[in-house]
Amino acid sequence: MAKRIILANPRGFCAGVDRAIQSVQTILNTAQSREDGLPPVYVRRQIVHNKHVVDELSRQGAVFVDELSQIPPEAAAAGIPVVFSAHGVSPQVVKEAQELGMSVVDASCPLVSKVHREVLRFVREGYEIVYIGHRGHDEAVGVIGESPEHVHLIEHEGDVDDLDFSSDTKLVLLTQTTLSVDETAGTIAALQRRFPWIELPPSSDICYATSNRQAAVKLVAEQSDCVIIVGSANSSNSVRLMEVANEALAGRGSAHRVDDAGELDPAWLDGVQTVGVSSGASVPDTLVQGLVEALQGYGFTEVDSVTTIEENMHFVLPAALRKNSEFGLLTGYFAYKATLVTI
User: Fold this and answer.
1) Which residues are annotated binding-site positions?
2) DSSP SS3 for 255
3) From CA 226, how far away is CA 220, in angstroms rounded?
4) Which end of the chain, N or C, is less packed with Cβ atoms under 10 Å?
5) Domain range for residue 23?
6) Same domain, 160 and 138
7) Whole-number Å distance between alpha carbons of 12 and 235
8) Closest by alpha carbon to 80, among 61, 67, 53?
């Protein structure tokens, strides 16, 4: 009986990631050569949490910085665009960019931006906000930055005991988009026991891509002896895919995460007949294909796939790249050729 690979669908790029990468790629593709030695574009933080994507865009000329203060003043004066990553930024970062006179392209995922708007709306209405997220994650930092005095971060069910609100406090719950319904269920239940009046947001903040990829990998894991997730260690959704796969394997085997095929450990394949494969929402499918080819070299010659849903979500590029007039003001040195982003 042939050893086989089962690919999870959907996997890889989501619409928000695609939009963010395309934002940087559009600027790179249309940039004219410069004589002042300045790069065509700066990007604050990793555009998405995948080192291969960052390395490739760096190779093409993008310069990644941790903070805006690392960008030289002459770049701002020359109108070099600064792209904000898909994870969103706090108002403090936006203000800093304005004060430094920078030309900004905001590539924040629209689903993350929705949570930012929810924070502002609930604060205006007098709420305290309990936010479930990963401490230090770029998305969480940006959301909390909208109103640090009113947004209370918790990571786990055990953190609920540290919260203290009186019964007359208006409370609402928001969550980081890359967390899953299963992952937050216990924490939400604990919150509802401790604060029965807490309100849930009118619609889930869990993004469609997170839910879809986790449902697919769970189904694949149930048919596999081992699961390998392609994704970087700092990718919240990739790490969670591995955890979901481990749960679904139910002790029959283990799930592992790799950045690329070069991290594949042959020992994981001992006694394995079927390997499930998926990837995080910021992973190019070329990396998955590289893993498939590596697995085929170990005798996994049959390739099947499991599809749980067909995704057709797409987001257009940021306004600064879509409007000819704005784009001209932003850069002044290359022509606008942006197209709509689809997946």
Assistant:
1) 14, 49, 87, 109, 137, 177, 207, 235-237, 282
2) strand
3) 10
4) N
5) 16-108+322-331
6) yes
7) 12
8) 61
CA angle 279, 105, 129 (to 5 degrees): 70
Q: Return d(Cα 222, Cα 252) in angstroms, integer.
A: 9
Residues facing residue 263 across a β-bridge: none
Say how many domains are in the chain. Answer: 3
- Residue ranges for the known binding site for dimethylallyl diphosphate are 49, 87, 137, 235-237, 282
The amino acid at 128: E
The CATH number linked to 156 is: 3.40.1010.20
Residues contacting 159, CB < 8 A, separation 6+: 187
Q: Which residues pair with residue 65 across a beta bridge? A: 44
Do 81 and 42 form a contact (C-beta atoms < 8 A)?
Answer: yes
Q: What is the DSSP letter of 318?
A: P
247-294 tens-digit pLDDT: 999 999 999 999 999 999 999 999 999 999 999 999 999 999 999 999
Do 8 and 41 lie in one domain? The reply is no
* Of the listed ranges 6-10, 114-118, 192-196, 200-204, the one predicted with least confidence: 200-204
How confident is residue 113, by pLDDT bands cut at 50, 70 and 90? very high
Q: Is 139 a catalytic residue?
A: yes
Say if residues 236 and 280 touch (Cβ distance below 8 Å): no
- Is residue 56 domain-resident? yes
State the burial class of residue 234 (Cβ atoms within 10 Å of its Cβ: 0-12, 13-18, 19+): middle
Q: Which residues are annotated as a binding site for [4Fe-4S] cluster?
A: 14, 109, 207
Candidate list 139, 243, 310, 326, residue with the active-site label: 139
